[in-house]
Amino acid sequence: MQQANARLSREIAERRRAEEETLESNRQLAAPALGQLRASQEQVIQRERMHALGRMANGIAHDFNNTLAPILGFSELLVMKPALADDRAKLHSYLEMILNGAKDAAKVVSRLREFYRLSR
Prior knowledge:
Blueprint: H1 2-80, H2 88-119
Helix pairs in contact: 1-2
């Protein structure tokens, strides 16, 4: 009976040791895998941020070009054809469009600053 108990105790001890070795082996395998998973997630997140930033920059460039168009167009027209300044109504209309374009450009810059403040 004592031999059976001793043998049973040894088997239990061996199983526990084997179980502990298995758990330790799993921990050793899991640590690098978890690190690699985190690194991969960070790369995906970074790629998505860069993609979103690129789309945003493209949209801002488009908006800014749209606001510059009347500023450049009407100011070039007045420089190339100074006689247009003689028509006060036309001159006033062109200057209003230049002013509105400049105000729109200022709004784009203001939205950029607001975004920058929020993202900080």
